[in-house]
């Protein structure tokens, strides 16, 4: 009996075997995906990203990106996921333009055609010039620069600094009006973007966005069309240490110095 009991106790006191390490079967495929180059017009999600941050950094509406990628829940994105960040329509237009250019006769190009049109005008060849003028009118052209009005009255207390301050900060009093700097459409109105407080983002065209942060209250909602000079918010101090407006201008998603656009 003593021998049996001793055997049982010995068995109970023996060290337990450590569980086998858990292997992520998808780790290899995730690593493979991350090492692949990101195609043009796409963005690969990084840890800590949000759809709102991605959309702001690429000059798009987060709702558009969600639509283009069939995201039923904009809050559900995964690391290394590829997101289309350019309008599918714009991509098709670029592809068609590229194909059309390839079909031009040998030795001719869009630039060449433009030059020949100028020469035709100089020689009085009106028919050819008119035809070229018609072709030029249907071609995509670069968007002109934008002229902005001041979004608030006050002193600039912090200037634009690449890598440090993505816009300018304008001091003021609590509740003072914040105005749209140009005509456009509200693509975001809320407080989900960390560091911006109550924020309004207005998209003016396919190139320019303006952002208005730290507001006390917002007077517009997503989807609203706004006019230049329209009151869209009231100045405040949400997510900052003083009453002021943080104002950003984004060109294709990249922050630029607003002072070069302000009248």
CATH superfamily of the domain at 156-260: Glucose Permease (Domain IIA)
Distance between the first and last residues' Cα: 99 Å
What does the largest sheet look like?
A: 8 strands, antiparallel
Write down the CATH class of the domain at 156-260: Mainly Beta
The CATH topology of the domain at 156-260 corresponds to Glucose Permease (Domain IIA)
Q: How many strands appear in the DSSP assignment?
A: 13
Give the helix/strand class.
Answer: alpha+beta
Report low-confidence residues grouped into runs of 5 or more: 1-31, 93-143
Task: Describe the overall structure.
This protein has 263 residues and is α+β, with helices and mostly antiparallel strands. Among the domains are: 37-84, Membrane-bound Lytic Murein Transglycosylase D, Chain A (Roll); 156-260, Distorted Sandwich (Glucose Permease (Domain IIA)). Helices cover 29% and strands 21% of the residues. It has seven helices and 13 strands. The protein has helices at residues 2-13, 27-35, 51-57, 62-68, 88-102, 110-123, 126-137, and strands at 42-44, 82-84, 156-158, 168-171, 177-179, 184-190, 198-203, 208-215, 217-218, 225-226, 231-234, 244-251, 254-256. Strands 3, 4, 6, 7, 8, 10, 12 and 13 form an eight-stranded antiparallel sheet that branches. A hairpin with a 7-residue loop joins β6 and β7 (198-203). α6 runs antiparallel to α7. The longest helix is centred in the middle third of the chain and has 15 residues, at 88-102. The radius of gyration is 28 Å and the shape is globular. The protein starts with a helix and ends in a 7-residue tail after the last strand. Mean pLDDT is 77; it is low at 1-31 and 93-143.
